[in-house]
Amino acid sequence: MAVVLIDTLPNFILPEEHKNLVASTPASFSDIPPVLRHKEDNVSVALDPPLESFSAEDAANGSLYVIESHLVFMSASGRGFQVEYPSITLHAISRGEKGPSIYCQLDDAAATQIDEQPQNDDEDIPPMRELSIIPKDSTALEPLFEALSFCASLHPDPDAENDMDDDDDAFVDPGEFETFNGDNDQELSEVGRVRSDFLNNSRFAPY
């Protein structure tokens, strides 16, 4: 399952702590906790279909943690969820009817990592779940998007083909998303920027 309910934050360190640990030459670099790349308070989320046992009250307000290992939302109610990056098949800045947000498509099949092939072609395919991340401060969209893109780049799709298109821009449902080609003085329409990190083999170089 792409979205896993949690009641405590996963372990992480800040970038400065990571820098100091690396400089100290630890016995094992693999023991260094993942780095928190961005934290945003006063965030609401929307899941479609809704997540069982995670209420509208839980989704109404909380903090988003963009950690190198997981994308985490922790509600002010004390409940939260985490998402593994390989299950995020697409993320984009959206300016649709819900207001400025980060829109994500989550693939439950990618999260479960089923090794066995389906027995027949008629077997049900797990549905795609949609996640909208809505910060109260709309200026947080860009740093959130960049941090999410960076962390996603640390978890490349092993099945991605080498000859896939390197273009970062993509069209997804022309009625809802579009690529923005205007200048900085123009407002983005439905979706200003779209990046499908797991459909296109184009990623941030982490170092």
The number of E-state strands comes to: 9
Mean model confidence by pLDDT: 79
Spatial separation of the terminal alpha carbons: 30 Å
In which order are the strands of the major sheet placed? Answer: 1-5-4-3-2-8-7-6-9
Largest sheet: 9 strands, antiparallel
Helix content: 10-25%
What fraction strand? 25-35%
Shape: globular
- The radius of gyration computed from the alpha-carbon positions, rounded to a whole number of angstroms, is 18 Å
General description of the model:
The protein has 207 residues and is of the alpha+beta class. Helix content is 15%, strand content 31%. The protein contains four helices and nine strands, in the order βαβαβββββαβαβ. It has helices at 15-23, 56-60, 108-112, 141-153, and strands spanning 3-6, 36-48, 62-67, 70-75, 80-84, 88-96, 99-107, 128-135, 191-195. Strands 1-5-4-3-2-8-7-6-9 form a nine-stranded antiparallel sheet. The chain is globular, with a radius of gyration of 18 Å. The relative contact order is 0.17. Mean pLDDT is 79; it is low at 177-207.
